[in-house]
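Field log, afternoon session.

UNIT: design team B
ACTIVITY: writing a sequence onto a fixed backbone
BACKBONE:
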């Protein structure tokens, strides 16, 4: 056997790379991880964590307004966006230290710089060659921007997280996870938000009732949704921008943000020199065990463009380590992956949408509840929640659990366990609710939607 410098070199110290490196080191392997930016990767430095901190920050605007109905008075309440951004950055620095310590405490060598492969066993970093028997590519993705005249004026989520001043008016292009989350943050903080959607509404791929409920609530909050509209050009106009839309309408804005999906980070990685095949989008092609077309090279996380969520990258990383180093071939299970959108109000979802359920199972029963949560009554907040169960009529199994409303991500996590266990509607019905909560609605819904869905 060739004498390699390491047993494993991981490219990218993000969610997948850190987990795989740590588990491989704990299995006794000699590991190095290459990182060109900040240890922690997208989720910790430019994604889930800073975004959620801003969501918390923005939510206080609603909470303070609601508190008036509960007897509080808030004279003199003030908000300083720059202070929130600085506090958020302090927390990111702390987390970067935590992740760096995890690597060092596990005896992992951190190679700082951009890495690329020069052959199937050699990684080049800052002009030096490092060899390894096994290589894991976990380089994630980056924002992808369409070609539109004036696109250089647009920012992405990377910059939106670090604005030192809030704009008065923002145009957000895209209607996916990132677009609706940032629309919620900006809107709650008093920024005028226009969303430009090429589709008919937000969040393609989500259940139709989830999409409609969120769009309704966003509109009620004053977000201007321009559906079936595309941007033709962006031009500088004084201190702001003029955005020309299809239909020849123009919008004036202080900031234009694009959240139009992400591209896998494979450019310049030297994958061809190692025999690693990528698809048309540049994503690394892998088998069910996350192995690439080169036998000793594996890939996990966003760079493979499977399900771009942190817990998925982490689970793929753990499966890779079991397969490659522990002699237990383990394929990641992609069924019933729950997810949340931290919009305002937020979404929690697990399992099939109604349309998917009908396609796969034929006859389904739908239970749907829309209500004003108790908290909103004294607050006089006109915001409704939507909860929906989709049940396979033949087996009584619950196929989908969807919620739009306060605490939906926290509530749906537990129901994801039930779906993973194959719970039936009868078992949901036999579960005693916790009162008074919104979550109890999921175990008390008895009325089927009158028009049964048919295949
Ligand atoms: P990453 O975390 O992207 O890590 C890849 C690392 O590789 C990076 O640190 C990068 O600098 C490094 N790298 C790239 N190329 C090289 C190279 N050639 N050499 C050395 N290093 C390199 N997911 C959720 O589950 N929940 C959320 O709430 C959520 N919110 C998000 C919000 C935003 C704004 C964004 C952008 C994403 C969000 N995601 C969320 C998605 C989540 O961040 C990703 O799915 C996750 O980070 C993927 O992990 P990864 O290991 O594949 O890649
Ligand atoms: P998404 O794929 O979720 O959404 C992209 C949006 O941009 C869609 O509305 C899409 O429209 C639109 N779009 C794509 N191309 C164009 C174009 N050329 N012109 C106009 N609109 C366009 O990507 P995001 O960037 O929002 O997020 C990337 C991924 O990161 C997510 O899919 C998710 O996996 C992950 N993420 C997870 C979060 C969470 O868990 N809470 C939060 C943030 C990100 P159409 O629907 O018509 O294709």
């Amino acid at each position: 056997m060739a004498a390699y410098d390491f047993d494993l070199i991981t490219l990218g110290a993000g969610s997948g790379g850190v987990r795989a490196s740590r588990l491989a080191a704990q299995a006794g392997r000699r590991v190095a991880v290459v990182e060109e930016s900040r240890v922690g990767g997208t989720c910790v430095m430019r994604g889930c964590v800073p975004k959620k901190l801003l969501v918390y920050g923005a939510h206080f605007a609603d909470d303070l307004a609601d508190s008036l109905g509960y007897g509080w008075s808030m004279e003199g309440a003030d908000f300083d966006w720059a202070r929130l951004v600085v506090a958020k950055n302090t927390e990111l620095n702390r987390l970067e230290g935590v992740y760096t310590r995890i690597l060092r405490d596990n005896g992992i060598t951190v190679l700082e710089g951009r890495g690329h492969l020069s052959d199937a066993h050699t990684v080049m970093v800052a002009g030096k060659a490092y060899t390894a028997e096994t290589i894991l590519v976990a380089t994630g993705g980056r924002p992808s921007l369409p070609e539109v005249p004036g696109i250089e004026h647009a920012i992405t989520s990377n910059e939106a997280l670090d604005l030192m001043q809030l704009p008065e008016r923002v145009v957000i292009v895209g209607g996916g996870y990132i677009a609706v989350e940032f629309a919620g943050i900006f809107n709650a903080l008093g920024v005028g938000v226009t969303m430009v959607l090429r589709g008919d509404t937000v969040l393609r791929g989500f259940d139709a009732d989830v999409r409609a409920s969120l769009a309704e609530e966003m509109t009620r909050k004053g977000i201007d949704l321009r559906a079936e509209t595309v941007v033709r050009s962006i031009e500088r106009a004084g201190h702001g921008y003029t955005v020309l839309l299809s239909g020849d309408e123009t919008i004036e804005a202080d900031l234009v943000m694009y959240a139009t999906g992400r591209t896998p980070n494979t450019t310049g990685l030297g994958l061809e020199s190692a025999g690693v095949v990528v698809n048309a989008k540049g994503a690394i092609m892998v088998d069910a065990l996350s192995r690439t077309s080169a036998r000793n090279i594996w890939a996990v996380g966003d760079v493979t463009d499977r399900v771009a969520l942190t817990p998925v990258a982490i689970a793929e990383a753990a499966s890779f380590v079991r397969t490659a180093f522990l002699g237990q071939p383990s394929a990641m299970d992609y069924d019933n992956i729950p997810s949340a959108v931290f919009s305002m109000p937020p979404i929690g979802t697990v399992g099939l949408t109604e349309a998917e359920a009908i396609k796969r199972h034929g006859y389904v029963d739908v239970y749907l509840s829309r209500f004003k949560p108790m908290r909103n009554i004294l607050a006089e907040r006109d915001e409704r929640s939507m909860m929906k169960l989709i049940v396979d009529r033949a087996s009584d199994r619950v196929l989908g659990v969807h919620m739009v409303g306060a605490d939906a991500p926290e509530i749906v996590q537990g129901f994801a366990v039930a779906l993973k266990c194959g719970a039936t509607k009868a078992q949901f019905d036999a579960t005693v609710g916790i009162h008074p909560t919104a979550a109890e609605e999921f175990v008390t819904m008895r009325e089927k939607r009158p028009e049964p869905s048919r295949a």
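LOG NOTE: The two ends are 58 Å apart (CA to CA).
NEXT ACTIVITY: expression trials, pending approval
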